[in-house]
Description:
Blueprint: H1 3-17, H2 21-28, H3 42-53, H4 61-74, H5 77-89, H6 99-108, H7 113-130, H8 135-142, H9 147-155, H10 158-162, H11 167-177, H12 183-197, H13 201-211, H14 217-223, H15 229-236
Helix pairs in contact: 1-3, 1-4, 3-5, 4-5, 5-7, 7-9, 8-9, 8-11, 9-12, 11-12, 12-13, 12-14
Amino acid sequence: MTDMDKIVEKVRQALVSSADEKIRLSGERFFKEEVRMYGVASASAQRFSRDFFKEVKDLPKSEILRICEVFWKSGYMEESFVACHWSDLIHKQLSREDFVVLERWVNSYVTNWASCDTLCNHTVGSFIDMYPEFLEKLKDWAKSSNRWTKRASAVSLIIPARQGRYLEDIFEIADILLLDSDDLVQKGYGWMLKAASQAHQNEVFDYVMRNKAVMPRTALRYAIEKMPKELKVEAMKRK
């Protein structure tokens, strides 16, 4: 057994030993799609992730990413959260060449909104902040046939959007996703617009008003959630 195998096994044993059937069944009710879960409380999973990272933090970046990919491949949500946490902890070490790894995770292993959002809000979003030329790749993701890749294109910009960055790119991604029929994609880009409205309320309100005739109501409601009541009323009026 390699050192990598030993680390993976330790994490899995910790998750299995803390699994609770009630937590698993309760957690599964949050998802429309089928998910695989051990049934570990979030606080416990976070603690395991922090504790076991101490055993890998001095490994080369490439080795940590390989271990993360093993967790992704398992299909278990708690293992995906460990992978998300570890990749976020080393995000400052990521180089432009590592985008292919993040893209593979999104395209191949993300199968639910929780894993999508945890990976993209943090690791992918941080990567984009370091290498903003990859915003163009997010626009390619928005054109994917994969619902999670489309959602990822939007939710990767949540934190930068709150800070007022990339507004024109945010509107371009919203334009691409505007008429998407998938409610999880609608919620994703609506959330992105809501985040952007915290720094650019007028611009986002104008965008919503220009597109309200065709924008799905799910996306619209998300987009205006943080706005004053009078703007919400105006945006929700049907013509």
